[in-house]
Amino acid sequence: MKLLTAILLAGIFNCAWNDTHANNVQIANLVLTGQDTVNNTYQIQFDLTWENSWRTSTFESNWDAVWVFAKYRLAPAGDWHHCMLDTSGTVAASGSTVSLPEDMDVVTSLPIWLGAFVYRESDGIGDVSYTGLELRWNYGANGIDDFDVVDISMFAIEMVYIPEGPFYLGDGSVSNIEGQFDHEFSGNPYFVASEAAFDVGGNAPANQLTTNNGTGMSIPDDFAVDLMTYVVPAEYPKGYAAFYIMKYEMSQGQYTDFLNHLTQQQASNRYADEYGNARYTIDSISTLQENTYAVTAPDWPCGWLNWDDASAYADWAALRPLTELEYEKAARGPLSPATHEFAWGTPFIHTSGYATINDSSATEVITNPGSGTGNANFFPTGGGVLYRCGIFAASALSPVRDETGSSYYGVMEMSGNLMEIYVTIGSAAGRQFVGVSGDGELDMAGDDDAGWPGEDGTGATPVAWRGGSYNDNIPRRLETSNRLNGAAGNAGVLARGANVSVRLGRASQ
Fold this sequence. Notes:
By secondary structure, the protein is mainly beta. The protein is built from 9 helices and 28 strands.
């Protein structure tokens, strides 16, 4: 991620930026131009580059993209707020497409636009560089006057587009069962053919989703315990509809930028204060004016997160949490599952120890990656330490799924490195989740105000942990369909975990 700040004073502005990035997405030459004092708008102009981009109209039929959004504050030290955009005035650079998804203001019930996806206009692969992109900032909608002095910051997050279509839940495993999804207690995968409501659990199933009766789970699904049938509403995102997902796990650089754009009270509630533990390199630095945060290894994924942290970042970035059904769709794609498969689509995984160079840097790579077997960071390969986001794609001898550790759609590290927070289907709290995106603003305490479920009256939270982590000794914990912790929120997991991160997304429109 790249953070830039432009200073505006009475229509005259200077630009400055500092390099805090992850996975080499870069924003440069940020300026505010073309002020319209009648309509109270400004053009936000910037250049955008990133590496290893693609778009294909065959097979996966998808692309990678960058989610861009902006924050402003009244200079020199006001609170940061989200920039409201206008659909008119968007300028796409040559070879690019700029898409502004529409959201709904919960107060006015009017449409709002909070960010944009930038991606390739046509099929291709390789690095991209887009010059002269423009978004129109409706500063009047933010309550800013024509001559107010403001700072403005812009953010970029790499995403992957997951197209609409059916897919399977569960992999049909008949041994080493740990809560894998199945169809009517049969052990067979469950076919998701729409976003329509369906039943889950129960002791008299009729085309229901079940989970091998919760066998092997650390905390069982509620329906596996009480043998009740529950409805999963149509509003719960099931993965059939198109959506975007972060290409990488949340990085420490991204989370540091988040903390530095909150109030002191908000940031203190969202900061784990675990500097130096389990490769957590975010440090709190007190100054005379305020607390700020610095990061030593911005490209390492960010552990020590819980549901409150994940949902707050999602709301702040105008994204949303993803469901555990969307996790399986993003990993497996439309293919028929193989038993005990990992995110790269085979049941084979590298188990010898890795050696690395350039540790903690953006160029950290593995010098002895596996060839012909899936590469992932878990205890036998990584020895219980984190690797940077995207390390396997950078280290692979061949650009194929198993060697890069890539999902069907090109999402990285969905098996291993850190467990990721998703919305479970195994609790009442989780099934209440509606797939609306955040509005860019948090409450005074630094919590989301998007209306997503939190801790319910029983102490349960909507949390599933999926994908396994660097300190897992057992390979099957990294499998796509493994749900050892698929209903972890039933234990009220609001404590932060060293091996827990998050991967966020939003609907495509």
